[in-house]
Design goal:
InterPro entries: DHBP_synth_RibB-like_a/b_dom, Sua5-like_dom, TC-AMP_synthase_SUA5
Oligomer: single chain
CATH topology: DHBP synthase
Family: Belongs to the SUA5 family.
GO molecular function: double-stranded RNA binding; L-threonylcarbamoyladenylate synthase; tRNA binding
Order of helices and strands: EEHEEHEHEHEEHEEEEHE
CATH class: Alpha Beta
Low-confidence stretches: 1-26
Organism: Strigops habroptila (Kakapo)
Distance between the termini: 53 Å
Mean pLDDT: 87
Strand content: 15-25%
Number of strands: 13
Number of domains: 1
CATH architecture: Alpha-Beta Complex
Structural class: alpha/beta
Shape: globular
CATH superfamily: DHBP synthase
Helix content: 10-25%
Main location: membrane
Number of helices: 6
Length: 256
């Protein structure tokens, strides 16, 4: 196998990556994305990484993934057991909702009732924004059963978008950290979670690890009420998001 195309697998906690290790032994594995970065990914190496992640997800596992903001943990949103595993991993209040992650705007319409122009969706997605909309009947009833809303992410990161496209349904996505702790920008920062993960996709550092602003996560905005919006979390893209919603589309801000 060509060196540039090789995806190196390493048992979590074993230090340097070693090629040829599988996902067995009852321990999580770390998969290093090939050189080239998000702008120019190595096609063969990234396909291998996507294949490994899809396999882990289909087996009911949790997979750590890089996004355009912070590292996340994903599972299949339609798999109720995997959704429960994410809550257990996070030590999270069961009434704090999980977002879903999709690869493209077109797929959003299957899982949400959309009451804003398609152009608005495409002005914000893909990007560091979570849009909260009315959920449809297609979405797993065990995912956030206490609310009629759901947050939708389409990160501007080619790996997770390819992974989402390769799955038949949406991913459930949350940040790779214990609830109430700081978001993570490298895989080593959530090392305590590794034993509970099936696979860790290591895409290198995300942003400036010394900058607090890089840990803010996505801007979360509720668009479920026609003609209005509510900022639920300011996040890292607040100013640009509000400008688009107010100046281009004339939406009226409401207090959360």
């Amino acid at each position: 196998m060509r060196r540039a195309a090789r995806a190196a697998l390493a048992l979590a906690g074993d230090g340097a990556a070693r090629p040829g290790l599988g996902l067995g032994c009852g321990r999580s594995a770390r998969l290093l994305l090939p050189p080239g970065g998000a702008a120019q990914p190595d096609p063969q190496g990234w396909r291998e990484a996507v294949t490994a992640a899809v396999g882990a997800l289909r087996a009911g596992g949790l997979v750590a993934v890089p996004t355009d903001t912070v590292y996340g943990v994903a599972c299949l949103a339609q798999d109720s057991g995997a959704v429960r595993s994410i809550y257990s991993l996070k030590g999270r209040n069961g009434r704090k909702p999980l977002a879903i992650c999709l690869g493209d705007v077109e797929r959003l319409y299957r899982y949400c009732h959309v009451n804003v122009p398609d152009e608005l969706l495409r002005d914000l997605l893909p990007g560091p924004v979570t849009l909260v909309l009315q959920r449809s009947e297609e979405l797993n009833k065990d995912l956030n059963p206490f609310t009629s809303l759901v947050g939708v992410r389409i990160p501007n990161h080619p790996f997770i978008r390819e992974l989402a496209r390769a799955c038949s349904g949406p991913l459930a996505l949350t940040s790779a950290n214990i609830s109430s702790q700081a978001s993570t920008l490298t895989v080593s920062e959530f090392q305590d979670l590794w034993p509970q993960l099936s696979l860790i996709i290591d895409g290198g550092p995300i942003g400036d690890i010394q900058s607090p602003e890089c840990r803010l996560g996505s801007t979360v905005v509720d668009l479920s009420v026609s003609g209005k919006f509510t900022i639920i979390r300011p996040g890292c893209a607040l100013t640009s998001t509000v400008e688009i919603l107010t100046q281009k589309y004339g939406l009226i801000p409401e207090s959360s």
